Amino acid sequence: MATSPIVDGLTFIPAMYYKATAEDTNPDCENYEQTFDLADLYSNNGTNILVQCGLCGQPMTVTSATILDPQPEYS
Ligand SMILES: [Zn+2]
Fold it and tell me: Is the pLDDT of residue 47 over 80?
């Protein structure tokens, strides 16, 4: 399974939602070097995080993340 690269120093607690940003690093893509806001990125097990570019489909690099407090409740 593909996973998104995560910038150095950024860690995720498993099974939590984060407000995050991700950047497209595919030079062939129109979104190259653009940053996207993610309102509720789920951390899965803390490492298997995937943010895909809607255009090129490549995993985007997670560049920042802040844990949501309180956590959103989804059913
Ligand atoms: Zn892209």
Answer: yes
- The tokens 């806001």 sit on which residue? 37
For ligand 1, the distance from its centroid to the CA atom of residue 12, given in whole angstroms, is 23
- How does pLDDT run across 20-31, given as a tens digit for each residue? 999 999 999 999
Angle, alpha carbons 64-2-45 (nearest 5°): 60
Residue 56 Cα to ligand 1 midpoint, Å, equals 4
H or E stretch covering 42: strand 35-42
Ligand 1: distance of its center to the CA of 75 in Å?
A: 30
Q: Report the predicted TM-score, pTM, of the whole model to 2 decimal places.
A: 0.92
**Which residues neighbour ligand 1 (ion) by CB within 5 Å?**
24, 26, 29, 31, 53, 55-56
